[in-house]
Write the structure tokens for this entry.
Amino acid sequence: MDIAREARKLLEENRRVTGDHQYTVPSGDHYPYQWLWDSCFHAIALASFEPEAAKAELRSLFSKQFMNGMLPHMIYWEPGALHKYEWGTAGTSALTQPPMVAYAAWEIYKRTNDRAFIEETYPSLLRFYHYLISERDPRDHHLVGIINPDESGEDDSPRFDAVLNVPPDVSAAEHLRRRLELVEANRACNFDAELCMSRHFWVKDVPFNSILAKNLEIMGHIASLLGNHDDENFCMLHLGLVKDAMRERLFADGMFYSSTGQDYKLLRVETWAGFAPLFADLYKPEEAESVVRERLFDPETFWSPHGVRTVSRREPSYRSDGFWRGSTWMAPHWFLYKGLVAYGFAKEAAQIRNASAALIEQSGFREHYNPETGEGYGARDFTWGTLILDMIEA
Ligand code: GLC
């Protein structure tokens, strides 16, 4: 199979146009909407060969930015699309997703040198990161909070089980019921983050904050390019503050863990989240050595015959076919690949890239995969595998 060709073809097939807006749906049958972090992945994959489509993807996202700067995680461009949730907002969800959008914009700039595109998107980008820093961190402790597991992008991850009060063997249906209940509660709080966090779901998630850190660094580059030195200082200051706060509050026994509640109780469930900080250079080189060699590539826990398990095989919640409860996903693979390359783990990065390619060869572009057998699950013609384009090229 010519994976690169198939990946480009899939991005084209999943492309949709509504009025003046062009975007890509993650999967035509399962996910017929525009999603925030998915669109960032699409833009990263598209940037190298179809930068105009990558720009359109981000413009569509920004067109639905909230007054307060939030970018919603789902946009229902077409009426009648299936909705599981009632948000109380017109045409979009009222939650957000990991803030990858500066990274995606910067990838486009690096490929095109299109300064006008950066100038055009800059105010929206800045408003989004300002929103996260102010509204999602009301106590000024420099970690941003999520108000629902869906905001992590890992809806059913067991690292949120204790907060949702569900057992390790919770069924998918029961899990969805709990999250819908939470949306109801969030709606009753008008999605006011401070209220939602203090009353219902208060999590400082490691991947979300790692992605924020990396994106603040990039916002610093963007501000510098545009000669906005106050903004550049703001971004670099907050990058340092987030990094320090993660170390102070989320670091234990050589790894980062997400936390819950006002006193930062650590959620010590072994998930791939502990490796996400590699993406943002948050581990010191000697820490990264042991995190990568002893933990990530340990076959007893995370490293499987087909790539990285999203949950350690030793966790009671581990299911090789569980949605974010152990199965292998392409976006985590991509984040890990990028982190490993940046730290100089070239051989390990190649292992992840090769495992990703082998999964696509074996089972096609699926939503997630069984790490023990390579079998594909969930949505078909799912776009996350197109991130392989960014791994092959790099
Ligand atoms: C699933 C994933 C989420 C993704 C969405 C659309 O809900 O958990 O991360 O954004 O599908 O692909």
Observations:
- Residues 229-250 form the longest helix (22 residues).
